[in-house]
Amino acid sequence: MAAFLRRGFLWLLSVTLLLADVDSTENTFYTAGVVEYRPTIMGSSSDQLLEANLAGYLEIMASGNGTTDIIVFPEATLNSVVTLTAVPEWTKESLCEEQVGDDPEIAPFLRSLACAAREYSTYLVVNVKERVPEQCTSDETCSSRGYSIHNTNVVFDRQGAVISRYRKWNLYLEPSTNRTESPEMATFTTDFNVTFGHFICFDMLFYTPAQDLVEQLGIRHVIVTKMFNSELPFLTASQFQQGWAWANRVNLLASGGSLPQGGISGSGIYAGQQGALARLMITDALEGERKLLLARVPLNPEEPIATDEILEPERTTPVKLKLLQQPELSNFATWELPMVRGSSVDKRICQEDLCCQFRVTWTPMEAQQEYNYRLGVWVGQRRYEEEQYSAIRLCGLFACRGSTVESCGLVSEEQEHLQGHRVVFTQLEILGEFVRRPRRLLMPSTLSSSSLYALQPSQLAWSMEELDSVTRIKMELRQPHSQLMTFAIYGNYFDEYASGGAGRLGALLFLLITPLIMSYLFRE
Ligand SMILES: *[C@@H]1O[C@H](CO)[C@@H](O)[C@H](O)[C@H]1NC(C)=O
Ligand SMILES: *[C@@H]1O[C@H](CO)[C@@H](O)[C@H](O)[C@H]1NC(C)=O
Ligand SMILES: *[C@@H]1O[C@H](CO)[C@@H](O)[C@H](O)[C@H]1NC(C)=O
């Protein structure tokens, strides 16, 4: 109340005395839109699919009524490898004008989007499959195709001129797509004085170029176009987006493809440690959605936002989204929480160079629960679907469908009668000591089981302290929670094992030997 009165007074003061000041408070935000987009992928020719998706894009842009300063569409939801387009690196004028961009390979759909950017006077980010003619110096360097294909973000300004282009560096199961010779660092500056960096989906799991943009270039506003396969318990789409923005203390505009039957959904607008301003995960349907999410984003991600925090829905809906599962769970050091009313524990769990201290108080509300819970610590290397790896150090609490560790990260889909049979956590604190490394990112990884959204700042406290050889992270639940799925500290140590020749060999040996040692050690 006092704060309200004070704010009211200050407001009055600023209106009566400092009109210019009112203007400047208005200018501390920009309006961003990210699109969760269900692509048309079946039913007709490639040209017709492209046409249908373009029409969907234009319809969504129209629905914004010109209110956005910037709007972002997801990865791989527009054209395909048989409906390629050239993409100029930049153009002086709008690509809406036929004579601009002197290249017959620039497809009409790209020009239509430039016209839409101009019509709604908005910056526009789209992702396309790009055709690039090969520069053939000798027969060896030329493929039979005669051109290469890139997975490319294109950015238009409010007139429809191309102001930035980025070709994906970390490809994920994209056999027909080429990589650039070296990674690109793509940025652009807007008329509202914000410099954005942008990249694509899988890039977010690696240091280059995502962390380079943040750490080397000091970028505070990041755009990512996505088509992301969610994985429980630590890497579902919105959870990861929110954790990444939190850890980097940046604004993140994430636009995702919407194909829940294929495990893909998740978009949002996040403001650093202020959490999600808008977000959408389609978890309760097999059919995706087409939706424009809007938010007023602070120019400074650290500047407190006046609007009410959005929370996850209370109501739990059965999860239909197809989810991957963390592949290394059986190698975690874990401890299962006994389901006894009014339990409390103070426990230290270690694996290799990571020790975490857990203080937990919990009580099951019914005799039988929807989920069991484990505390766990893991230091190891993981593989993604591609031959790409990250060294991971993590510790936390996570939900399990049954009493085995292999059942952690499985949703309780067949147990609908148990819905609402919850465990209430009244105290939950993790203290982790993570070894310091120059290239790593320590993120909160949290998830509520009601709809697979991350915890918001009113629910989560996070602090970091740098000591000589370790970073001490303290993560705490700020209020009781009865629908926890994940509450963890997730450390991505990027290429700790995989960089360089020796590193690669080490990684290979690690991969070959670890399962052998593990199976020997844990033989029952
Ligand atoms: C755009 O205008 C329509 C019709 O006036 C309205 O229903 C809709 O909410 C508006 N959208 C935005 C984003 O302002
Ligand atoms: C692009 O990728 C294709 C398919 O993998 C390959 O045949 C071709 O040589 C690549 N082109 C370049 C320039 O690397
Ligand atoms: C633009 O932003 C920079 C730093 O991000 C700041 O130094 C500069 O004063 C700003 N310019 C305007 C016109 O607001």
Automatic annotation (TrEMBL):
Keyword Aminoacyl-tRNA synthetase: no
Signal peptide start-end: 1-24
Listed GO MF terms: hydrolase activity, acting on carbon-nitrogen (but not peptide) bonds, in linear amides
InterPro entries: Biotinidase-like_euk, Biotinidase/VNN, C-N_Hydrolase, C-N_Hydrolase_sf, Vanin_C
Keywords: Glycoprotein, Hydrolase, Membrane, Signal, Transmembrane, Transmembrane helix
Family (UniProt): Belongs to the carbon-nitrogen hydrolase superfamily. BTD/VNN family.
Transmembrane segments: 502-522
Protein name: CN hydrolase domain-containing protein
Tree of life domain: Eukaryota
All copies of domain CN hydrolase, residue ranges: 30-299
Organism (species): Drosophila erecta (Fruit fly)
Record CDD domains: biotinidase_like
